[in-house]
UniProtKB/TrEMBL annotation:
It comes from Roseobacter cerasinus. This is Gene transfer agent protein.
Length: 199
């Protein structure tokens, strides 16, 4: 299985000015935009870390997900949430031949934790032997920063500020995350029921 991010969050959508205020950076010196690229990088890094920990996509992007088998024949749990639309389903043979599946043959069951691709009939289409299915979808809380839940927005700022403060530190424990951030994102972590509930 492979999840590919087809689009990225545009620079203009990043809350650079709000992050500067969070960091209490000085203003009025004529060089307010000097660090914008650096601050944007820390925001993107914090977003990526939180998305990885929670399985939640913060700002709307388009994704492509390929898999070689269905977990269940009538539905398939999708790898991230929230998903707003499934835009394409295709079957790909081993030699690369692609068959598009009509949109009226499947539908999206929206769920805050485990959205599902469901068959309209009894079962999803057969994936070719040694081939794959490709599902394209849009995921995220919204295209604007204001669409994020307040606790996730604060978690991004806290983690990005942590990266900024310790940007020259090389001895931090790998994968460490400040306690305040962990507390804010705890309720968004996907629940795992039994073995491999999220395939």
């Amino acid at each position: 299985m492979m999840l590919i991010e087809e689009t990225t969050v545009p620079d203009v959508a990043l809350p650079i000015e709000a992050f500067k205020a969070h960091l209490r950076l000085g203003t009025g010196f004529g060089q307010e935009s000097v660090q914008d690229e650096v601050l944007g990088g820390f925001l993107r890094a914090a977003m990526a870390a939180i998305e990885s920990r929670t399985g939640k996509i913060l700002m709307t992007r388009t994704f492509s997900w390929s898999l070689t088998f269905w977990r269940d024949r009538d539905c398939q749990v999708l790898p991230v949430a929230p998903i707003t639309a499934v835009t394409r389903l295709a079957l790909v043979t081993r030699d690369g031949t692609t068959t598009e599946i009509a949109a009226d043959q499947y539908w999206l069951e929206q769920d805050s934790q485990r959205p599902r691709l469901r068959a309209v009939g009894a079962r999803l289409p057969n994936i070719p032997q040694a081939g794959s299915a490709v599902v394209e979808f849009e995921a995220g809380f919204g295209a604007d920063w204001s669409a994020l839940p307040a606790d996730l927005s604060q978690a991004v700022f806290l983690l990005a500020a942590h990266y900024y403060e310790y940007r020259d530190e090389t001895s931090l424990q790998e994968g460490s995350m400040p306690f305040g951030v962990s507390s804010l994102i705890e309720r968004y972590k996907a629940l795992r029921i039994g073995g491999g509930a999220r395939r």
